[in-house]
Every structure is written in C-alpha cells, then in structure tokens.
Amino acid sequence: MASRSTARKHTLAEQADRFALYQEAVNAPADNIDFIERVYTEMRGAKPKVLKEDFCGTALLATEWAKRGPQRRSIGVDLDAEALAWARRHNLGPAGPAIASRIELVHADVLAPNEHRADVVCALNFSYFLLPSRQQLLAYFRNVRRSLRPRGLFVLDCIGGTEAVADYHERREYDGFSYLWDHSEFNPLDHTARCSISFAFPDGSRIEPAFAYRWRVWTLPELRDLLDEAGFAAPRVFWEYTDEEDGTTEYREIAHEQNQEIWLTYLVAST
Ligand SMILES: C[S@@+](CC[C@H](N)C(=O)[O-])C[C@H]1O[C@@H](n2cnc3c(N)ncnc32)[C@H](O)[C@@H]1O
What we know:
Layout: H1 4-8, H2 12-15, H3 18-26, H4 29-44, E1 50-54, H5 60-67, E2 73-78, H6 81-95, H7 97-100, E3 103-107, E4 118-123, H8 134-147, E5 148-160, E6 168-174, E7 177-187, E8 192-200, E9 206-216, H9 220-229, E10 236-242, E11 249-253, E12 263-270
Parallel strand pairs: 1-2, 1-4, 2-3, 4-5
Antiparallel strand pairs: 5-12, 6-7, 7-8, 8-9, 10-11, 10-12
Helix pairs in contact: 4-5
C-alpha cells in the first residue's frame, strides 16, 4: 500500500496541467476565428491575414489562426513568461514548424509601444478587465489603434448583466474534471471583483485556485466612450443569443437589448 506522502503525489490535481484544463474549459478559438473572419470579410470585402492576440496567455487563438492557411500570420502578446513557454511547447510545437514560423510570441505589456501591425487586434475573454483604471484602458486602446493596419479592426468581448456586478459562482463538468468559477468581493464603488478559476477532480483533489486575479467589470458605455476617445468610430455590438433547444449560440448585431443575469457581446471597432 502506498504511503500517505506517495499517495499525495499522485492525486489527479497533482498530475493535471492547469493551462491544458483552462484551454479545454474556457477557450473556443474556432468560434472566435469564425466570428472575426465573418465580420472582417463583411466589412472589408477580403479575408484578414494578420491577427494580433493581446493577453494571449497560451496563444491557442494565435495558433489556430496560423493553422487556417499559409497566408495567415499571428502575434501573441502576454506578460506571463510561463504561459508563453507553455504555448511554445504545447501549441506551437505540435502545430509543426511551418505553422509555428508564422506565429510570433512577444513577452511584453500590452501597454508598451510596439512595432507590430495587424489586420485584426483582439482582446478576448475580457482580458482587458485586468486594466482597472480609465487611464490604463485608454492607453491600451490608443496602443491598439496604432497597431492596426489601414482598415484594420479591433475585436473585443464584454460580459455584463446583473450577475456580473455581484458575487456569483459557476460550475461546469468536463471529462475528468470540474471547472469552478468564483466571482466575489464585487465592489460597486470601483466595479472590481476578485475572480478565481479552480479545478476539482473525481478523487476529491483540487487545484484551488488555478488562476486568481482582480478585475474591473467595465460597462459598455464606458468602453464606447474610451474607444471614441482613443480615436475609434462607434463600435458595432454583437450580442450572444443561445438557442434554448440545442444550446447553439449566435452573435447578432444589436442597437438595444434588455439586461439579463449574464450577457456576452463582441465589440468591433474600426478607425
Ligand atoms: C485571463 S488570461 C486570458 C488568456 C487568453 N486571452 C484567453 O482567452 O484564454 C489573461 C492573460 O492576460 C495577461 N496579462 C494581464 N495583464 C497584461 C498586460 N498588461 N499585458 C500583457 N498581458 C497581460 C496575463 O498574463 C494572462 O495570461
């Protein structure tokens, strides 16, 4: 029989890879790319070639983008050297040298000046919520504007609703693990909240938290004002609708909507 200490080393949590679980539970790069291609093609009459994925983390989106054809190039920017190293090993490496050679990973702050230019710059999974001040978000939007090629588009998503400005928890089941989202300590004075993602396993072990940060829940009017101030035209807003029967989702452009417990949108901004 294994000793207690040996047994502890073999919990499912200890064997798990938090970045791999995050990708499985959170990322949906094919859906993101389909949306970006659809909107860009409709607005610009051509397919986008270069994508800059800000806050790229493990750069799954940048990798999937480059897989969509030899014309495609991507740039991923993130502050976290560990996530970028993981990206190289687990996403770019397995994609093969031809695809990896068209992906550039940059270890940098998205607020820093940079020379990269892209047809589409994206900030997805609400990552810019990690910039809590107006000054920071404006500086970021200005930086994005400088990073766009002529006729380029900035695509960001947003989450809101009555639950997004309150404490709430979510649990989703996956093959071999549960994903736990915790949104707590919401402060109505500055709209910040503490967020954490944990993973729970059938043997009772957990990675808790796997990721934790404080973010600011930016509102759509604030984003529209800041985009305007940064020199963007009024963004198009695409609201997520879910088919109650089969669970499929689609994004439709809207000018007004009713508030909900949780809603998701894409914003598409051009200069
Ligand atoms: C919640 S993760 C999202 C990762 C990925 N975009 C996704 O959709 O799954 C946020 C990422 O933003 C990065 N990050 C936070 N602040 C940043 C900054 N100022 N510049 C660059 N990356 C930043 C973190 O290191 C982290 O990898």
